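Holo model, fe (ii) ion. Inputs:
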Amino acid sequence: MTPTVATTCADPVILDQWHPLLPLDEMTADNVGHTILLGEQLSYQLDTDGAPVVWLAADADATALPVLVEYLYVWVCLGSPPEALFAIPEFAEPDRRNIHAGTIGVHVSAPRAIENFLDMGHFPYVHTDVLGAEPHTEVAEYDVHIDPDTNDVWATECVFYQPRAATTSTEGQMSDYLYRVPHPYCVILYKTTPLAAERMDVIALFCRPIAEDRIEAHMFLCLLDPDNSETVIRKFQQTIFGQDKPILENQYPKLLPLDPRAETPIRADKVAIAYRRWLSDLGVTYGVIPAA
Ligand SMILES: [Fe+2]
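Output:
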């Protein structure tokens, strides 16, 4: 049976989240822009002070929705937002390059995109000779936990052989990975940086749900890469995500099944199982097929 795809969002858990609308530098004071979030048509513009204003396009009074500017993006909430967004302290480090690497539209649910981002097993096959290569195909044992203070999902102690882990790579390396899911539709990856032994590059995917089965994924980078141009860095990231897009669009069903018996354990590995259970515990129903 094909699951029903909702046209608007009635899920209070998702309505009450901050959602990444677009990069702040794509908003202007001269023109009103239009976009879609959770099936709702939104309009936006910078005000005369340069602050972003977002409203429901159908609202004759153009009542401003709650907005937040964080990590280069304008975040919007259609319900009652939390006071703050999740913290990425590396963003403020003076030697970091904070870069919006691009936005890619994908015909899939946000949870499917997050789960794919969490999956190391596809590196050698989908990102061949960049993020993985045969015969180094085995995903070694790693740890998963939920942070008791923030309720973020973490996967730690992840290690994977990568032929070309970053734009700063000069040779293959064993990359250490930490994955963090601080928001149902956002995921952050911390990974070995070739230039600094004790620090990690930060790579995040912030998904804007257009509809239940359609997203625009913003790729955010917070890197230790002093030399490469933004063009080179963006192209590297866009190439990788461009390889994921057709895989994601072939996922069936497009909504993520939360029933633990719905898909084989090979596809749903340890962190994926934790993410699905975490979405269930949060009560998320939009973009997923809830467990019976
Ligand atoms: Fe991928």
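The mean pLDDT is 94. The chain has two domains: 12-76, 89-289.
Archived with the compound record.
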